[in-house]
């Protein structure tokens, strides 16, 4: 499995989405006012959402009885033990502009973490029970990576950000039609749901009786009991040549030879789990966290209260995605972090959930 294009970054034609123009931010160079998840993932302008009326995630009584059996059961999830953990990094591969460092020791209370990202099957149960409509569906489009569009001539592309033209705003792209009209998830029910905003993830949590993890919880859980390591399994990306995560292989963004087996998302249980039994905490999809994003290390929280700032413009994303590559977005490291506006959605953003003990 591989894919490539003759994508020209300097002369690729584009037009900005007419109604919801994204800031043309990228992972390597971002303005202080606009956060972007890695791999150059663009975001929606928050003000474009002010007039929208959100669909509540209230249960449909007719479906509620059946839905109870489909909601996640946290009692079987791994318990992340309470303790003092060294979080962040001083690694030379880190991005100081993302406030990855300095490494610091913080106290984390015990909690449960889902071993998998929320799947298409999970999200289908939620939507069937509540009738929830995602932000991407309300906007009418979402961002799709150019190589994943099987036939660009058969979809309506509303625009592409100037600095990240490999992202196309595709009309009709959403969680159930990930590459736009004509695509589907029937053969991807055990893949992570994508094209979900932070708002959508929070609505799912309210229905399921769980919550989004804080950034500190996410990073603690992702380390799997290891301290100060670059990846959930250690410091070597491919131990003995073995792929441990779903990221980009090849030349980004024009050729992916997919030697790890996947061009897009992988099943949520692909590869080996970390020491706590969590799968795919590096690569596959970016995962929303509860916290507001900040690039100020001093605002990321103290050892006693490591929850981050009380307000902001973007929410934290962790873990990297299938588009991350060392040459451009080296953010599949555990300490790496990024952010995006709460109503943004793309084909490489999903989430996993946590629960209190």
What are the salient characteristics of this protein?
globular, 3-stranded antiparallel beta sheet, 15 strands, 15% strand, alpha+beta, single chain, 4-stranded mixed beta sheet
Give the radius of gyration: 19 Å
- Work out the oligomeric state of the chains in this entry: single chain
Number of E-state strands: 15
Helix content: 10-25%
The ordered string of helix (H) and strand (E) elements is: EHEEEEHHEEEHHEEEEEEE
Largest sheet: 4 strands, mixed
Overall pLDDT score: 85
- Uncertain segments: 6-37, 46-56
Walk me through what this model shows.
Residues 6-37 and 46-56 have low confidence and may be disordered. Helices cover 13% and strands 15% of the residues. It has 357 residues and is of the alpha+beta class. α1 (61-70) packs antiparallel against α2. The termini are far apart. The protein contains 5 helices and 15 strands. It is globular and about 55 Å long.
Helix and strand arrangement:
Elements: E1 3-4, H1 61-70, E2 79-80, E3 83-87, E4 104-108, E5 111-113, H2 120-130, H3 135-139, E6 141-145, E7 157-159, E8 167-171, H4 198-208, H5 215-223, E9 250-251, E10 255-256, E11 286-292, E12 315-318, E13 338-340, E14 349-350, E15 354-356
Parallel strand pairs: 11-14
Antiparallel strand pairs: 1-10, 2-5, 3-4, 5-15, 6-8, 7-8, 9-10, 11-12, 12-13
Helix pairs in contact: 1-2
């Amino acid at each position: 499995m591989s894919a490539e294009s003759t994508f020209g970054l300097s002369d690729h034609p584009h037009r900005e989405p007419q109604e919801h123009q994204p800031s043309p931010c990228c992972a390597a160079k971002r303005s202080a006012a606009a956060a972007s998840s890695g791999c150059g993932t663009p975001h929606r302008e928050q003000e474009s959402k002010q007039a929208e009326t959100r669909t509540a995630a209230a249960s449909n009584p007719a479906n509620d009885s059946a839905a109870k059996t489909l909601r996640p059961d946290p009692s079987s999830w791994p318990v992340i033990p309470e303790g003092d953990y060294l979080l962040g990094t001083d690694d030379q591969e880190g991005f100081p502009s993302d406030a990855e460092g300095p490494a610091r020791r913080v106290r984390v209370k015990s909690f449960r973490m889902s071993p998998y990202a929320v799947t298409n099957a999970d999200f289908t149960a939620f939507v069937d029970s509540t009738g929830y409509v995602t932000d991407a569906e309300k906007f009418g489009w979402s961002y799709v990576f150019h190589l994943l569009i099987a036939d660009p001539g058969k979809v309506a592309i509303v625009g592409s950000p100037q600095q990240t033209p490999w992202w196309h705003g595709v009309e009709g792209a959403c969680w159930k039609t990930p590459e736009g009209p004509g695509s589907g998830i029937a053969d991807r029910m055990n893949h992570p749901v994508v094209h979900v905003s932070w708002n959508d993830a929070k609505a799912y949590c309210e229905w399921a009786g769980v919550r989004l993890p804080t950034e500190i919880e996410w990073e603690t859980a992702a380390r799997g009991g290891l301290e100060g390591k670059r990846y959930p399994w250690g410091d070597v990306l491919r131990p003995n040549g073995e792929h441990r995560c779903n990221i980009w292989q090849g030349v980004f963004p024009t050729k992916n030879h997919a030697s790890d087996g996947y061009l897009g998302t992988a099943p949520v249980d692909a590869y080996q789990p970390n020491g706590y039994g969590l799968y795919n905490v590096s690569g596959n999809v970016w995962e929303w966290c509860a916290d507001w994003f900040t690039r100020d290390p001093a605002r990321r929280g103290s050892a006693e209260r490591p929850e981050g700032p009380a307000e902001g413009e973007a929410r934290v994303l962790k873990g990297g995605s299938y588009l991350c590559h060392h040459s451009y977005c080296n953010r599949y490291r555990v300490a790496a972090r990024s952010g995006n506006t709460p109503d943004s959605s793309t084909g490489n953003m999903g989430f996993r959930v946590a629960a209190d003990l």
